[in-house]
From TrEMBL:
Regions annotated as coiled coil: none
Native source organism of the sequence: Bombycilla garrulus
CC terms in the record's Gene Ontology section: membrane
Family matches, as Pfam families: MAM
PANTHER family: APICAL ENDOSOMAL GLYCOPROTEIN PRECURSOR, MAM DOMAIN-CONTAINING PROTEIN
InterPro entries: ConA-like_dom_sf, MAM_dom, MAM_domain-containing
Domain MAM stretches: 2-148
The protein's name: EGFL6 protein
Length: 149
């Protein structure tokens, strides 16, 4: 099991079998559970690791907001991208450096049109750095538009 909460439906995570490395659980500093992480030293530069969140029962023609915590800790740690299943070519969200080691919040609007989004993929691309990690935690899906901060 992974640390994630989804307010509606089922939380089902899958490692991509066709990528270069897996995401792994990492213990939180406070010791209350864990998050999913890719350490900076895993793989080779530009290698990819993909973690897929399978979404079931999303209603067509409605909107959702995916909210998640993330951090990119370490110099030249790499990139974190998020893809929606029906928009395979371009990421809907991307971050390539952290200002510090703090956790930040990402938000993505998911509009269910004629094609429904049945999965969200978190992709980590290995950078040149040797220390730090890319982490994802607290993934929540809510119905409706994303709230303003």
């Amino acid at each position: 099991s992974v640390d994630c909460s989804i307010s509606r439906g089922v939380c089902d995570w899958k490692q991509d079998a066709d990528d270069d490395f897996d995401w792994n659980p990492a213990d939180r500093d406070r010791g209350d559970g864990y998050y999913m992480a890719v350490p900076a030293f895993v793989g080779h530069k530009n290698d990819m690791g993909r973690l897929k969140l399978l979404l079931t029962d999303l209603k067509p023609k409605s909107s959702y907001c995916l909210i998640f915590s993330y951090r990119l800790a370490g110099e030249k740690v790499g990139k974190l991208r998020v893809f929606l299943a029906n928009k395979k070519t371009a990421p809907v969200w991307e971050e390539n450096k952290g200002k510090d080691e703090k956790w930040r919040t990402g938000k993505i609007e998911i509009f269910q049109g004629a094609e429904t989004t049945n999965s969200v993929t978190f992709e980590s691309e290995r950078g040149k750095g040797k220390t730090g990690e890319i982490g994802v935690d607290n993934v929540i899906l809510i119905s409706g538009l994303c709230p303003e901060d």
